[in-house]
Write a structure and sequence with these properties.
seven-stranded mixed sheet, alpha/beta, two-stranded antiparallel ribbon, Rossmann fold, 195 residues, globular
Length: 195
């Protein structure tokens, strides 16, 4: 009985505290995270900060906790299929529900910004769904830096190599926190791109 009372008192105290190490932090009913796991790695975040001038524009496919972190330094456009993430962070959200396994392209076409400096592919959820980016590459400004997250998964690893071949780009692969990400950077032969 004393243990139950202690637990109740502890829970009441923690619910009144601004810092709660036991309960997950919640915002709009969503569990907020940190770098890694289903979010981008800290290494990917640091890569962006080191290589993309502050104030630049990022187009991200899939949003989450890292959206909030990137929005502190960049203008963000987030293509998101899950309504519960829409307007959670300081991003310009493009709601595009999944249609045939990928984002509804009509929603993207209507709302895509004209200019962006980096494309971060970290959605939609699931490994196979992201390959829709390949089928719809014509929608995007492929002169931008393109980053594919989760290269530790075979489909994403294959996807970045197909993209590099399609766009005649070089790949840089980085590791961090149990995850890998890849960056398509330099255009090998700018005249060869004919999309």
């Amino acid at each position: 009985m004393k243990i139950q009372k202690l637990i109740i008192v502890l829970n009441v105290f923690l619910s009144m505290s601004t810092y709660n190490p036991i309960m997950p932090i919640m915002q709009n009913g969503l569990k907020l995270e940190s770098f890694g796991d289903s979010s981008i790695s800290k290494e990917l975040y640091d890569y962006i900060l080191a290589n993309l001038p502050k104030g630049s524009t990022i187009l991200e496919l899939g949003s989450g906790w890292a959206t909030d972190q990137l929005a502190k330094y960049y203008t963000l456009y987030s293509i998101e299929h899950d309504k519960k993430w829409i307007n959670t962070y300081a991003s310009n959200y493009i709601y595009a529900p999944l249609k045939n396994g990928w984002y509804d392209t009509s929603c993207i076409e209507e709302n895509l910004p004209k200019q962006y400096d980096l494309i971060l592919v970290d959605g939609p959820v699931g490994s196979t769904a992201r390959k829709g980016f390949l089928d719809n590459i014509f929608l995007f400004n492929t002169d931008a830096i393109i980053i594919i997250d989760d290269l530790d998964r075979p489909n994403e690893f294959e996807m970045i190599h197909i993209l590099a071949e399609m766009l005649d780009r070089e790949i840089e692969i980085y590791s961090g926190a149990g995850k890998k990400f890849g960056v398509l950077t330099k255009i090998k032969n700018k005249d060869a791109i004919n999309l």
